[in-house]
Amino acid sequence: MPEFQFDSFAAFLAMGDYAIYVWPVYILFALFFVTTVLPPILGRRKIIRQLKARLERMESNMAEQGEGN
Amino acid sequence: MLAHRQQRLAIVLFILFGTAVAVGLVLVALDEGINVFYTPTEVSSGMVPENQNFRIGGMVKMGSVVKDGLQGAEVNFLTTDFCNDVLVSYSGPLPDLFREGQGVVADGYIDNGGVFQATQILAKHDENYMSAEVKASLDAAEEHDAEVCQQ
Amino acid sequence: MWQWLYKLGSPRWFYELGERSLPWLWGATVFLLAVGVVWGLAFAPPDYQMGDNYRIIYMHVPSAGLMKGCFYMMAICSAAVLIWKIKMADIVAKAIAPIGVMATLLMLASGSLWGIPTWGTWWIWDARLTSSLLQFFIYMGIIVLRSAFDSQDSAARACAVLTLVGVVNIPIIEYSVEWWNTLHQGASSLGMRDASANPPEIWIPAFFTGFGFIGLFFIGLILRSQNEILLRERRTQWVRDLVAKETAGA
Q1: How far is residue A36 CA from its own chain's centroid?
Q2: How far apart are CA A34 and CA C209, in angstroms?
Q3: Which range of residues forms the domain containing residue C113?
Q4: Are residues B78 and B40 in the same domain?
Q5: Is 0.80 surpassed by the pTM of this model?
Q6: ipTM here
Q7: Minimum-distance CB partner of C223 among A3, A40, A49
Q8: How many domains does chain C have?
Q9: C56 contacts in A (CB within 8 Å)?
Q10: Chain A environment of C60 (Cβ under 8 Å)
Q11: Residue-wise pLDDT tens digits, B63-107
């Protein structure tokens, strides 16, 4: 069974004096994760809103045409 | 319809192979220029640019590292490709992986005495990863074997 | 098999398959990445030469794999666009590109940070690093090229051609460390080829992060493709029904 490799939490953060190299990489990974999933999730909401507005416009147009006849 | 598709398939293959051949020819033309360093054998046989900085790459020969060596240099060592050795002289910070038996790439020039005066030392990693514990036990086993051989 | 591929070419079917797969993908990906990151950072033993700095490879190797894998998939899609004019293939190729760009950036940045203490430099113009940087520009070129077209069909064809040209660089990246001498080491086999050189306690976390990256790739691919499908299929009845259903509660 793998064991925790550091003597203390401070030693873990220090990463054997490689903290300034290791931690930025994992922060960049977090950014990679976020930029992969967040923009399309937010984009989807926007698209649904746009399509909804379009649908309503079309419905009101059709209603007007109905009155005209 | 099918004929159209085959035609388009031919176009796709043409793009792929055309590019591959073009790039291949460029790479063959560049040939040695793409290599990032010269080997000690190439240096010994004078295949290196004169009066110009270049890089030499090889292994740090076992037992060849001398601190406070020649003419006030901080470190001297032999770089080897197991056929020829070139003596390197250097003063400055060494990367973490600089060790005997490890790959090394040095940037610098050959002085009048045939010594490579390095201005920068880079270490080459060997794509093997091993835990410190395992390495220690391997070394211990090797030492044990060596003792057995001597007896 | 062919029928399945045929179905995958239908945007509606693709959308719904994505919808069904996403919960599973999310679960598996978050699990794999969490285990891989925690194991790699805290529980894997330090390397005998690089100490704790080698923990960077748990991000570097998977991101390099994704950089290559994304582009191979884009190339397959591009062939499908050019030969069979499959619209879905263009949607997928468009969805992959930004994921590939980010993976390439992560690979370049993590490699540089690893290189500072290990090699003694953050950059060298050797064949591996130069061809990798070139791949980043190829990715960017494809994205910029797509945005330069007004016509969707022209954009699809142009990007497909550029992708097929660009894919030639991937095997060059792959074999650069064998064809030329480079500062970059040979491929990290991580136990795949030589178990004694790379023991399991070191490569198992890479296995988790590697599959986690693949899961993350598919999540991004599905989410982005779904958005594109909604936009391109906005005139169809099923998208109208879907929009009506999703906004019914609001």
Answers
A1: 6
A2: 16
A3: 52-208
A4: yes
A5: yes
A6: 0.90
A7: A40
A8: 1
A9: 21-22, 25
A10: 25
A11: 888 887 666 678 999 998 888 899 999 998 889 888 888 889 999
